[in-house]
Design brief:
168 residues; alpha+beta; 5-stranded antiparallel beta sheet; 3 helices; 24% helix
Amino acid sequence: MVLSPAKMEQIRAFAEEVAVREGCRLYDLEFHEGPNRTLRIFIDKQPGGVTLEDCVNVSRGLNLRLDVEDAIPGGRYELEVSSPGLERKLTQLWHFSGAIGQTVQLRYRDAAGDIKSYEGHLDEVRDSELVFSNSKGIFTVDYGQVERARVLLSDPFPKRPAPGKKKR
């Protein structure tokens, strides 16, 4: 059974409420259909990051709320609560704002509607415009063109010393 957008918004509201109550922030959520239906909740916490105790507390609180409200019809499902990780997906504009200075892998639609790929440092977020740079220069894309994005842990574009300068 596919969950409607209205059901997903209801679940998001419950997850946000529980996460805030536990001192965290809802980062994202996903619901996967199939034989093993799974609701994945990603929480974040600053400073210091998410602990196992945070995940357990949000899981308990949200599980209770979802059961009381019977928010997920269709029978059995698994609830997973975790940190979004270091190589986190970027799905909301505020996710990009939080990733400024990091290397991002991006899939986007160009003006012709073709899917393109890009990797570079996220330098700035201006309204809905994302500004990146790599060894080829500056690249700008509108947030609405983004198909998929994630932070890369390893930096394929390390800063190198200027020619003639010795690295100390």
